[in-house]
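assembly run, all chains below
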Amino acid sequence: MSRYASMFAACRAENRIAFGGFLMLGHPSPSATAELLDALVEGGADMVELGIPFSDPVADGPVIARAGKQALDAGVTPDDCLAMIADFRARHPDVPVGILTYANIVMARGRATFARELADAGADSLLVADVPAIEAEPWAGDMIAAGIDPVLIAAPNTPDSALQRVASLGRGYTYCVARSGVTGSGEAPRLAHGALFAALERNGAPPPVLGFGISTADHVAAAAEAGAAGVIVGSALVQLAPLEDGPARVRDYCRALTQPNGSQPRATPSGAVMM
Amino acid sequence: MRLNGRFGRFGGCYVPEILLPALEQLEAAFLHAEEDAAFGAELDALLTTYAGRPTPLTRCRNLGHGRIYLKREDLLHGGAHKTNQVLAQGLLAKRMGKTRLIAETGAGQHGVATAMVGALLGLETEIYMGADDVERQALNVHRMGLMGARVIPVTTGDRTLKDAVNEALRDWAGSFENTHYLLGTAAGPHPFPLMVRQFQRVIGREAREQILAAEARLPDAVVACVGGGSNAIGLFSDFVADERVRLIGVEAAGRGLHGSDHGATLQRGTPGILHGSETLILQDRHGQVSDSWSISAGLDYPAVGPEHAHLQDIGRATYVGASDDEAFAAFKALARTEGIVPALESAHAIAEALRLHEAEPDALIVVGLSGRGDKDMASVQSLLEAAQ
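ok done. output:
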């Protein structure tokens, strides 16, 4: 069984949905990454989603875009990121690791090569933010050949024909976006995703995990209520990463969202609670 | 999508899934408009009575011994070829029921053109522009303001044109229900490269008829500058089937092709995916996009429209460079000998035409004079002062 399948099964057995935490590799610095990623797991993350920075991240809002730029300015390369992934895998043999990046980063190394390198580093899945379902077939083929699960995006406005493609090409999980726009723009998620989740299930898509704008325990509970198999929190965590006590803040924030009876997450530095 | 959006191995539709329905809607509206006589009539009326088409084909009296003709897009309302396609996209936006336009701009020309059509058609207009460009191009910022557009300074990334495109795409991902992204060149995700080409090919259609009327023959070469590539693809398209007509695109060689201070994507770029399209890109070996450089903001872009990458791939068009210095020399020559002040972008094409004329004095050459140079007066003045 894949790490995703075992992890979703374990969550179901505990009658809860999976919690995924996103951080940008090499942000705020390459040396800070290992401790921050460990903090996600300590805080209760069932799966981690890791960004490989790209110079032109059009799907990302200001928080994650800035984090990527900071990592690039610190000299972080995809090779460094692969090493960080392998390093995490060595310490956490069972936690599913999903990679998020952009098409040009993959193209620069070659689709098949990049997928093999990710597999060798111990990653489980790859989501390429600017490869929509209509372009995804050759990309998914190269990933599957290398043992990497292609993760595709489904949005409330995604037509049924595209959902069918998401279902047939996707593995591991389906990344459902909670609203239009980019990551973490501070706008509340729209959580009426029951119809989308039902359509995905009808088409036999991998389990739906909700991202974009998820930042509170209430959001998590609502996602569970709507039928999500999990949530991914990104910008809210990325915002904490560069703080002096970043790892502790990241851990506590995850805890607040993963422990249903725990306290609400602390407000983020700007005062706004974001994805 | 009804079409695959490919030009050989280039093109495609590489955008976040959330934008796909917006691009599908745009493709449908565009394909419908192409078949719709009423759309064609409305656009033609605007191009004729508002923009000033057809533009003349001018035979240079003093440069090139009568062998060089200029296609005068500089005489179009707005001062450049941009007007052709913003009018068309503006009409499409209205047909799709959009109430707001967004656009990216470098030095401000496409922003000004979009502001113009926004004012004309009563659409709210917001323009993304690199924060440094907002400072440098105060005059164009002012022009946009006069026409009712709001300029949003972009402070993300490297604060350049490519970051303005990124910001416009981010805006559109959350606003497409009421907003049309009026992309400024024949690049970006399908259907933009195809659509912008179709809206710009009026340049080549007229030029072909005009040169046949003037010389009773086709030209030996057609020359145009290439940034994103909309004026070049517009001029080239109706000559592509004329296999004996050479198509020559001129990129910004900036401070020289040996270094990194240029915008010569077709000559120095490598395959990649940027702003929705698989094309040639100036980038490092990791896939991070590089900064480009040119004396002319309109050629200062690290990618290029996918159809140019394809035309180069199949050997139908060739792409060469003109340096900052060569372009500036051609700029001065055209002003001094013909009384025409070209845009610095267009001066790159003039430079190549003069080079070609020197090598082949008999060759009949049509040059795309894509815009006028009024916008460049401040930078030209400082170049002249620096030269003294």
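The two ends of chain A are 30 Å apart (CA to CA).

The first helix of chain A runs from residue 3 to 13.

not gonna interpret more than that til we talk
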